[in-house]
Amino acid sequence: MGDDYDLLYPGNAADTESAVALLAGLALERPDHSLLEFGIGTGRLAVELRRLGVGVSGIDGSERMVARLRDKLEGESMEIVIGDYRDARVTGVFSVVVLVLNGIFDPRGRSAQFDIFRNAARHLAPGGCFVVESWVMSDAQRNGDWSVLPRYVGDEHVELQMARYDITTNRIERTLVHLRPEGMKFVTVTDTYASPGELDVMAEVTNFNRIGRYASWSGSEFTSTSSSHVSIYELRAL
To answer: What is the CATH architecture of 5-136+193-235?
Structure first.
């Protein structure tokens, strides 16, 4: 997907700007001024964070997507490990580890999600932060029926999400339909859902305290009706 990822997932410019501002603030107020992104992809956040003086490294499983990122860097160096952010290691200790866009919903299940928290802890100094972004399922989406949601609406690109949740396995089947002038593209995804409360339990078990939770990167209040969240977990000293 590396060649067309930026076309299929252009992102919202305001959300990207808010995410970069929040993450840079967390990184720059801590000693190392550094950030590790699990699933760094084509560098939507990484390139902008570097411009603000944050030392960025990454882990990603796709060599093609990382190649797109390196094109954007135009010869500048960045340490990127090709591997599984469940257990891959990057040299050094970081101020912030971040996993965005529902990456915590690993299809391999709860054990993989716990491993992701543990791997974040391995890369952080005490007081460092693990930041997780994911969506929140509504009560209506829990009934097992298919739901349809517009995820992105632009002048020449619309993305519709068809999703169905299985409460017995915590699995979500998703088909993402991308509508563009040149035609349609379908992407099928299977996720393991974790609610904000379940993520808090994983954090507690892996030596983190939750120090913040917002409904969006802009810092808006998280409420019972929020459809997404950005949660900030701080690593406890041993």
So the answer is: 3-Layer(aba) Sandwich (3.40)
How many Cβ atoms from other residues are within 10 Å of residue 135's Cβ? 20
Mind listing the pLDDT tens digit for each residue in 148-161? 988 888 888 999 98
Query: Could you give the CA distance from residue 25 to residue 37 in angstroms, rounded to a whole number?
Result: 15
Q: How far is CA 44 from CA 4, 47, 65, 172, 227, in A?
A: 14, 6, 11, 26, 22
Cα distance between residue 205 and residue 200, in whole Å: 9
* CATH class in words for 140-191: mainly beta
Same fold, 5-136+193-235 and 140-191: no
How far apart (Å, rounded) are the C-alpha atoms in residues 157 and 137?
Answer: 24
Give the separation between CA 131 and CA 37, rounded to whole angstroms: 10
**Taking the chain, what is the end-to-end CA distance rounded to the nearest angstrom?**
41
Q: Where are the alpha helices (DSSP H) in 36-146?
A: 46-51, 63-73, 110-122
Q: Is the pTM of this model over 0.85?
A: yes
Strands (E) located in the chain = 34-38, 55-60, 80-82, 94-99, 124-135, 147-153, 158-166, 171-180, 183-192, 208-214, 228-235
* Of 35-44, 109-118, 143-152, minimum mean pLDDT range: 143-152
3-state SS of 86-103?
CCCCCCCCEEEEEECCCC
Are 98 and 38 contacting, i.e. CB atoms less than 8 angstroms apart? yes
